[in-house]
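Ticket opened by: R.M.
Priority: normal
Category: complex prediction / small molecule

The reporter submitted a protein together with pyridoxal-5'-phosphate and asked that the result be attached to this ticket for the collaborator who will pick it up next week. Submitted input follows.
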Amino acid sequence: MGFSTDAIHAGQAPDLSTNAVIPPIHLTTTYYQEEIGKHKGYVYSRSANPTRDILQKNVAVLEKGKYALAFSSGLAAIHALSTVLKNGDHVIVSNDVYGGTYRLFQRFLTDYGIEVSFVDTTNLENILEVIKSNTKLIHIETPTNPLLAISDIQAISNICKSKNLLLSVDNTFMTPYFQNPLELGADIVVHSATKYLGGHSDLLGGILIVNSDELYERFKFVQNAIGAVLSPFDCWLLLRSIKTLALRMERHNQNASEVAKFLESQSVVKRVFYPGLKSHPQHELAKKQMRGFGGMVSFEVDDFNRVNSILKKLKIFTLAESLGGVESLVCHPATMTHASIPKEVREKNGLTDGLIRLSVGIEDIEDLISDLEQALK
Ligand SMILES: *Cc1c(COP(=O)(O)O)cnc(C)c1O
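Result attached by the on-call engineer:
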């Protein structure tokens, strides 16, 4: 089936007890057992819930995986995947990652005896240099947040296979509509469903997708043992959102491409970061492993004062954290989403105080361009 057909139908046959076309929200914690041990596969909703199962089946199909597991946030899902690491293990993480991912690996997991190396994973040499005998996992974001750098999933997965390491890919920015890391050799895909999958800035969620039975059993155990599950209501809301994912991503992509081109033509803009631009250092790789370039655009201006004056003038782009909703948002990563990364580390990675990140929404492009035009004047 095509992507949109699957997005609307996969896992969602009409409910057989009532013939309801839309699967109901199963707001129950517990389930009737006809006799001890005799039930329909549901015992307690932390372990399994029918609405969650439908969502998990749907997302597994879209990500070309065998299994999906839904968590209460993107970070809960990343935490669950990090449990493949044990005390004494080493993990390699992309240096330009979501601030919360950095915090989880650098300031939380290190307390549990896990060693972390942050490297620029766009360069394979950097990865090969830090692999050690205790390295177990490589975790990458591609494109990265907020610099939109692209890592070669296939090439990194080849390194992982030759060294017996696991590869996890945060696919939040591309969504399964534009990129399928499992097909490029990744072992684990993670999403912050809070962003494009949810798409309306009204729910928090996270998803893991895998093909291996062993990883699935592990993460299912973690989902139940730690308990950070997605609520039945949010599962239903996410199912509803995913039905329009293809339409929304097409429009995000189209609008962001226009915005990136416009910004590149402006003299106050020093640099534009968007994988769809020919000037992007990994534009060719982006065309190879992605089917679109997404809705995120970052750009750099002189300094913090200039940033402030632009942010004050923007009317449609709303100053807020988060991304991936239908409405356009603007954020200043250095003081907002990425404030948990020390200034020296940030600047070394190219995330300066003059950087502005746009989550380009699905409004009319003419309005978005005029808003930027008046703010940059
Ligand atoms: C937001 C985000 C996360 C964290 O997800 P939450 O749902 O906020 O916990 C992880 N990765 C990326 C790329 C994100 O943008």
